[in-house]
Amino acid sequence: MKVRFWGTRGSLAVAQKAASIGDKIAAALVAARGRTFADVAEARAFAESELDFATFGTYGGATSCVEVEAGGEGDAFIVCDLGSGLREFGLDAMGRCARGHARVYHVFLSHLHWDHICGFPFFVPVFDPAAEVVIHSGHPDAETALRRQQEEISFPVAFDWLRANISFRTLEVGTRYPIGAVTVEMIEQHHSHLSYGYKFTDAAGKSVVYSTDSEHKIDKMDAETAFVGFFGGCDLVICDTMYSLADSISMKEDWGHSSNVVAIDLCHEAEAKRLALFHHEPTYSDADLQRMHQESIRYEELTRETAPLEVLCAYDGLVVDV
Ligand SMILES: [Zn+2]
Ligand SMILES: [Zn+2]
After folding, report:
1. Are 24 and 136 members of one domain?
2. Whole-number mean pLDDT of the chain?
3. Confidence label for 306 from pLDDT (cuts 50, 70 and 90)
4. Gap between the Cα atoms of 64 and 80, Å rounded
5. Which of 62-76, 179-193, 241-255, 266-280 has the lowest mean pLDDT?
6. Do residues 168 and 292 both lie within one domain?
7. From ligand 2's centre to the CA of 191, what distance in Å?
8. How many structural domains compose the chain?
9. Are 26 and 154 members of one domain?
10. How far is Cα 142 from Cα 170, in angstroms, rounded to an integer?
């Protein structure tokens, strides 16, 4: 499988400001002091290999949207959540469809909060009369939420004007659904109006978990055995790690999100192989997120009892082979 991150920010889309781009350029110039480059390609190679990620790149600012590619051109697209990252996914998918990819989209919604559905009105494939879009959710009110955000008071294009064949399907916890090249299972999570996590397992037994917007409390981890089972042996767990541990237990308790520390604890207990930190707090800078990633790697090493857990920090544009 291939996992593509189109949107990784939590709660609210953000963009880099001129001042932060200026800081990155200034840091790069200092790092390159005394060096000369024959051309842009040589300068870029230096930047890629010598600068840290927060200087060279950015974690991005689009809200939750993750694609799981499990099959080939003849298979359906699988996409988790409809955050603002969906706009770019839609454009890329249209390009792939023009080259022969099936025009079928299976969407899996974690929940109906705005940051997870706001990309839908900007999803170009819904204007393709040949496209089929199936929206899977644990919430029977998913259709209400999507129609409501396109009512005239909120958006100029009504849901009924969309040309694709769009259908809604409510899934049940405890059932395994064969969908395209994968089997899908769902788990109920701790969040306002509930949220759901999904596990995608392919024919070779490789598995990816998408688990965002769930609050696992560090002092109540014994109650999380269902999640340890769900994450069990997973090749990649994409997990809500919106806050640092300090923030999650001081200011942000009961806000419905988790920390990097509890995500690592859960993945260790589940003996998962890789963890992607996800649903980044919108006020955290690239430097903040890079620091949290480095601290997460150190915490993982210090608390590891069995096989290592690789900790990634998801960013808009990251592609992971599973
Ligand atoms: Zn969210
Ligand atoms: Zn939420």
Report:
1. no
2. 95
3. confident
4. 8
5. 241-255
6. yes
7. 7
8. 2
9. no
10. 8
Shortest-distance ligand to the CA of residue 192: 2
Same domain as 37, residue 181: no
Could you tell me the distance, in angstroms and rounded to a whole number, from the CA of residue 279 to the centre of ligand 1? 7
Residues 6+ away with beta carbon under 8 Å from 77 = 67, 69, 93, 101, 102, 104, 105, 106
Could you tell me which of 9, 48, 2 has the C-alpha nearest to residue 314? 9
Please check whether residues 163 and 22 belong to one and the same domain: no
Q: Which amino acid is at 139?
A: H
Amino acid at 6: W
Query: Which ligand is located closest to the Cα atom of residue 112?
Result: 2
**Mean of pLDDT values over 192-210:** 97
Q: What's this model's pTM, rounded to 2 decimal places? A: 0.96
Q: State the angle between helix axes of 260-270 and 286-303 in degrees (0 to 180), rounded to the nearest 10.
A: 40
CA of 214 to the centre of ligand 2 (A): 8
Alpha helix (H) residue ranges in the chain:
18-31, 40-50, 53-56, 86-98, 142-148, 225-231, 245-249, 260-270, 286-303
Ligand nearest to the Cα of 84, by number:
1
| CB 201, CB 186: distance < 8 Å | no
Residue 249: predicted pLDDT: 67
Within this chain, do residues 146 and 181 fall inside the same structural domain, yes or no? yes
CA of 301 to the centre of ligand 1 (A): 28
49 and 129 housed in the same domain? no
26: containing domain:
18-56
How high is the pLDDT of residue 250?
A: 65
Residues 69 and 41 in one domain: no
Please give all residues whose CB falls under 5 A of ion ligand 1, grouped by chain where several chains appear: 10, 115, 213
> Separation of 138 CA from ligand 2 center, angstroms?
14
